[in-house]
Design a protein that fits this description.
The protein is α/β, with parallel strands linked by helices and 204 residues long. It has two domains: 1-26 and 109-204, P-loop containing nucleotide triphosphate hydrolases (Rossmann fold, 3-Layer(aba) Sandwich); 32-107, no CATH class. The protein is 56% helix and 13% strand. The protein has helices at 14-24, 31-37, 44-53, 66-73, 77-105, 137-148, 152-160, 165-171, 182-203, and strands at 2-8, 27-30, 110-114, 129-134, 174-177. A five-stranded parallel beta sheet has the order 2-3-1-4-5, with helices on both faces. Helix 6 (137-148) packs across helix 7. The termini are close together.
Length: 204
Amino acid sequence: MYLIGLTGGIASGKSTVARRLYEHGAVHIDADQLARKVVEPGTPALAAIVEAFGADVLRRDGSLDRAKLGEHVFGDAEALAKLNAIVHPAVRELSSRLIAKAEREDPEAVVVYDVPLLVEASVDHPFDLIVVTNAPRRTQVERLVEERGLDPIQAEARVDAQVDNTARLAVADVVIDTDGSLAHTMSQTDALWRRIVDEGRARA
C-alpha cells in the first residue's frame, strides 16, 4: 500500500487534486466525511459531545445541530479544544480502520487520505508522501466568493481562521500550485501519479 496525506487550506484546490487521483485509481478517504460519520446518532462521540456541551446541541431527531454546537465553540479556544479531543480520536480510529481495509482488499492500493486539519490535528498516520495544495490568500478568498457565495468579509475570516500556510508547507513532500489554470493543476497531479506508480514499482 502507498499512503498519501493530502492537505491544503480552504479553497486551495484540494478536492480537485483528490478527484484526479481517484480517477487514476486511488482509494479516496475524506476526513470531513468521517468527522460527520463519527458524530451520527448512537455514536460514542455524539454522546460525549452532549455530555460536554448539553442537550441543546441536538436536533429533535437526535442528530447533531452543527450551528448550535458552533455557537458553543466559536471564539472559545477551550471549548474548541474540548470538542477536538472528542472528535479527532474518533476520526483517527475510523480512518485507521478504513486504511487497513483498503490494504486488505488490495495490498498495492494507493490510498489518498484527504485531511484538511492534517497539521492542526497532528494527524500521524505513516504517510509515504504528504501533498499540500497551495494557492495565495487572495485566490482562496476569490474562490470562496465566486464558487461558494460567501461575502468577501466572511471569506477572509474563513481563510484567516485556518493554520498559516507556512505550517503546511513545512510538512509537505510535494506542493501542488493551484493558482494557475485547472489544466496546470491537473498536469501537476498527473505527474504526481506517475511518481507514485514509479515508486510503487521500485518497492515491489
